[in-house]
Design a protein that fits this description.
With 374 residues, the protein is an alpha+beta fold. The chain contains 14 helices and eleven strands. Helix 5 packs parallel to helix 10. The termini are far apart.
Length: 374
């Protein structure tokens, strides 16, 4: 009876649409992690509220259909940091103080960056020293990130390069970007520690930063969802993925060899994330890798041609940015040969072997080497 009474009150309030109810609803939305209210009657004067990780979005009937369609296409927006609104607000301040910054990174690129950081980044907190570090053999991708963001420092070492972000305001920007938008549990824990340390720091010598940080940063605990409708998986693959071709002897085959395509993702201690990715593609398996170290490393592998088509569609929509893009392009060329049965001839098989050699070269150039102590 109580539930029916509450429901009746809400419907009556919506019909009346009083200013008092709007104020109450706004406060209610702020207190909840996720709130979406739709008008069942689609009235002209209806107003609704949606909360995305601490931000209220106010919309009317005219925007209702667009918002519904947007949420269906991009379900992660229910959890993400309101399409990085907080990041962009602070980034505008950064751009005003850095006159050489012209272009703002768009949301697709930012989502790719988050996936890349989660796959192969280090979110470090050592007492009051905070930094975000990316380590790669291919320095080009690190310079690309630095140029788009407009901050960070790329250092060259023997056999690898490192992008280091450690300036106070740069760290502040990265916290706003990552907060509420991370997928991996270990990255969330690392960011939580960083936010805690950052909140305790004093910025008396940087007046304009001190003014922005009059309130402490709150940790957004909502989970970000992996989908095939955004670029997170593209960034994650650039950091941790691999495209390769497997050729094994098979007496029953016309050429005595069988050719299969493999898409591989590795990640330490994150079995569930790989299971979720496996469910997105609908094929493959997640297994525990044999590792000489004590680390628990899981691997997602698929060699299904049907999955290859889905993978092709996804990376055509959200292209890779490292040299893995070259490996992927060759991988797709071989996929087309398999579909057209050209691998069943000796000429086709030799062509695939030649292309595989090029793929391996690109894979080695962009192979993740993990984080080394500074």
């Amino acid at each position: 009876m109580l539930s029916i009474g509450v429901l009746g009150f809400i419907v009556w309030s919506l019909l009346v649409a009083s200013p008092l109810f709007k104020q109450w609803l706004n406060k209610l939305a702020i207190g909840l992690n996720n709130l979406v209210l739709w008008d069942p009657f689609y009235r002209k004067n209806f107003h609704g509220y949606i909360k995305w990780a601490g931000n209220i979005f106010f919309y009317t009937k005219e925007t209702n259909f667009r918002l519904k369609k947007d949420l269906l296409k991009y379900p992660q927006r229910l959890y993400a940091n309101n399409c990085y609104t907080d990041f962009y607000k602070a980034y505008n301040v950064f751009c005003n103080n850095k006159k050489n910054i012209i272009n703002h990174p768009d949301e697709v690129w930012l989502r790719w960056l988050i996936g890349f950081i989660e796959g192969d980044g280090a979110i470090l907190s050592n007492k009051e020293s905070l930094s975000i570090v990316l380590t790669q053999k291919d320095s080009n991708i690190l310079y690309h990130i630095k140029d788009i963001l407009g901050f960070g420092l790329v250092k060259q070492f023997k056999g690898y390069s490192r992008l280091i972000i450690k300036n106070n305001f740069d760290i502040y920007l990265m916290i706003l970007l990552l907060n509420g938008n991370l997928v991996l549990e270990k990255r969330k824990k690392q960011l939580a520690i960083m936010i805690d340390v950052f909140n305790r720091k004093k910025f008396k010598n940087v007046e304009w930063l001190s003014l922005r940080l009059s309130e402490k940063i709150s940790i957004i605990s909502a989970n970000s969802i992996i989908t095939l409708n955004d670029s997170w998986l593209s960034g994650f693959t650039d950091a941790e993925g691999c495209f390769n071709v497997h050729i094994v002897k098979r007496k029953e085959m016309k050429t005595k060899y069988n050719v299969s395509l493999r898409f591989i993702l590795d990640q330490k201690d994150e079995e569930m994330v790989l299971q979720n990715i496996r469910n997105l593609f609908g094929y493959g398996k997640v297994s525990l890798r044999k590792d000489r170290t004590k680390n628990t490393v899981y691997r997602y592998t698929t060699h299904s041609l049907t999955a290859s088509k889905i993978i092709n569609d996804y990376f055509n929509m959200f292209p890779l940015k490292t040299t893995k893009k070259h490996s992927f392009d060759i991988w797709i060329d071989i996929y087309n040969m398999l579909i057209n049965k050209k691998h069943l001839t000796l000429i086709g098989l030799n062509t695939i072997r030649s292309w595989r050699t090029k793929m391996n070269k690109f894979n080695i150039e962009n192979k993740s080497i993990g984080f080394k102590s500074l």
